[in-house]
C-alpha cells in the first residue's frame, strides 16, 4: 500500500484565496485594511526566512504587513515598548513575535505583553486558557493548519484515537487540545514516554512534532493511519543539505493511509493560518 499524500500546498492555496477574498471585502465594504506586524529580534537565519515569507504572503493577500527587525542585543524594556506601541496602533490587528527570542529576553513575559486580541499566534496565556476551556480562542497557527488538513482529509474526527508526539506550547499541547475539542481520544507522548512504538501503533491520527529527523519509522504506524509530520529538520545526506520530517517518510508511506510530505505538508498551512488569524482579529475589533 502507498499512502495518499496530504497536500499542504493545495490546502494553503485555498485558504489564502479565502483570506484574500475577505481582505478585498473588508477594504471595499468597510474601508479597513487588516494589518499584521511581525517582530524579529536577532539574525537567526531560519527565522529570517520565515519572517520574509510571512511578510511576502501578507502583502500578497492584500493586507498591510509591517516588519520590525531588532538587533540581537535589544533590551526587554525596548521590546516591551515596541509591543505597547503596536498594541495601541489601530492599523495593526495582529502581532507576531518570532520565536525563539535571544536568551536574555523573557519570552513568557514578552508574549503576555501582547494584547490578547492581537495575539495571532495564540500564545498569550489568555488564549491558551480559552482554548483549554473550549472557548473562543485565537488558535496557534501550526496546529490549526494540521486540524484543517485532518478535517479536510478525514471529515468527522470524533472517536478517533489520536497520538501527538511532542509536548511543546507551540504545537504539541495546542494540537492535543484541538483534537480533544473534535472528540478524539488523545494521548500526548514525549521524550520520557515508555514504549513509544506501541503507543504510536494505536493511532488513527499520528501527529509528529518532536524536531528529531526521521525518528518515527514505518513500523510504528498503524496500517491506514493518517500521519501529520510537523518536523522540519535540516540534515546533510549524500553530501547535500536536505529537509526531512520527524517521520521516516520512505517507510511510513508504505504503511500509512495518508501522510503529509516534508516539505509541502504542514509548513505552507502555518503561514496561511497566520493570515486567517489576522483576519479573525481584524473582524473581532471591527465587529
Ligand atoms: N517559531 C517557530 N514557530 C513559530 C510560530 O508558530 N510562531 C512564532 N511566533 N515563532 C515561531
TrEMBL record:
Origin superkingdom: Bacteria
Domain Tetrahydrofolate dehydrogenase/cyclohydrolase catalytic: 6-121
Keyword NADP (UniProt): yes
Record-annotated Tetrahydrofolate dehydrogenase/cyclohydrolase NAD(P)-binding domain positions: 140-283
Entry coiled-coil feature ranges: none
EC number: 1.5.1.5, 3.5.4.9
GO molecular function, one term: methylenetetrahydrofolate dehydrogenase (NADP+) activity
A Gene Ontology biological process term: L-histidine biosynthetic process
Pfam families noted in UniProt: THF_DHG_CYH, THF_DHG_CYH_C
Keywords: Amino-acid biosynthesis, Histidine biosynthesis, Hydrolase, Methionine biosynthesis, Multifunctional enzyme, NADP, One-carbon metabolism, Oxidoreductase, Purine biosynthesis
GO cellular component terms given for this protein: cytosol
Residues involved in NADP(+) binding: 166-168, 232
Catalytic activity: (6R)-5,10-methenyltetrahydrofolate + H2O = (6R)-10-formyltetrahydrofolate + H(+); (6R)-5,10-methylene-5,6,7,8-tetrahydrofolate + NADP(+) = (6R)-5,10-methenyltetrahydrofolate + NADPH
Pathway connected to this protein: One-carbon metabolism; tetrahydrofolate interconversion
PANTHER family: C-1-TETRAHYDROFOLATE SYNTHASE, CYTOPLASMIC, C-1-TETRAHYDROFOLATE SYNTHASE, CYTOPLASMIC-RELATED
Similarity-based family: Belongs to the tetrahydrofolate dehydrogenase/cyclohydrolase family.
Biological role: Catalyzes the oxidation of 5,10-methylenetetrahydrofolate to 5,10-methenyltetrahydrofolate and then the hydrolysis of 5,10-methenyltetrahydrofolate to 10-formyltetrahydrofolate.
Protein name (database record): Bifunctional protein FolD
Originating species: Mesorhizobium delmotii
Amino acid at each position: 500500500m502507498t499512502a495518499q499524500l496530504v497536500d499542504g500546498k493545495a490546502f494553503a492555496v485555498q485558504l489564502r484565496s479565502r483570506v484574500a477574498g475577505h481582505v478585498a471585502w473588508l477594504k471595499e465594504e468597510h474601508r479597513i485594511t487588516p494589518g499584521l506586524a511581525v517582530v524579529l529580534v536577532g539574525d537567526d537565519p531560519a527565522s529570517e526566512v520565515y519572517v520574509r515569507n510571512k511578510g511576502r504572503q501578507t502583502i500578497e493577500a492584500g493586507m498591510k504587513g509591517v516588519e520590525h527587525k531588532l538587533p540581537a542585543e535589544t533590551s526587554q524594556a525596548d521590546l516591551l515598548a515596541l509591543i505597547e506601541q503596536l498594541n495601541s496602533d489601530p492599523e495593526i490587528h495582529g502581532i507576531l513575535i518570532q520565536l525563539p527570542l535571544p536568551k536574555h529576553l523573557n519570552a513568557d513575559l514578552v508574549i503576555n505583553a501582547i494584547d490578547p486580541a492581537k495575539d495571532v499566534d495564540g500564545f498569550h496565556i489568555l488564549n491558551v486558557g480559552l482554548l483549554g476551556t473550549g472557548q473562543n480562542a485565537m488558535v496557534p497557527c501550526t496546529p490549526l493548519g494540521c486540524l484543517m488538513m485532518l478535517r479536510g482529509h478525514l471529515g468527522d474526527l470524533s472517536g478517533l484515537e489520536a497520538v501527538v508526539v511532542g509536548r511543546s506550547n507551540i504545537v504539541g499541547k495546542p494540537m492535543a487540545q484541538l483534537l480533544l475539542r473534535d472528540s478524539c481520544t488523545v494521548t500526548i507522548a514525549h521524550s520520557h514516554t515508555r514504549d513509544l512504538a506501541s503507543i504510536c501503533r494505536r493511532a488513527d491520527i499520528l501527529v509528529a512534532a518532536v524536531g528529531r529527523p526521521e525518528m518515527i519509522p514505518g513500523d510504528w504506524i498503524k496500517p491506514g493511519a493518517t500521519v501529520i509530520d510537523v518536523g522540519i529538520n535540516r540534515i546533510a545526506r549524500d553530501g547535500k543539505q536536505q529537509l526531512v520530517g520527524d517521520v521516516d517518510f520512505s517507510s511510513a508511506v508504505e504503511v500509512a493511509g495518508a501522510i503529509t510530505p516534508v516539505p509541502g505538508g504542514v509548513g505552507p498551512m502555518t503561514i496561511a493560518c497566520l493570515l486567517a488569524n489576522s483576519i479573525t482579529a481584524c473582524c473581532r475589533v471591527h465587529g
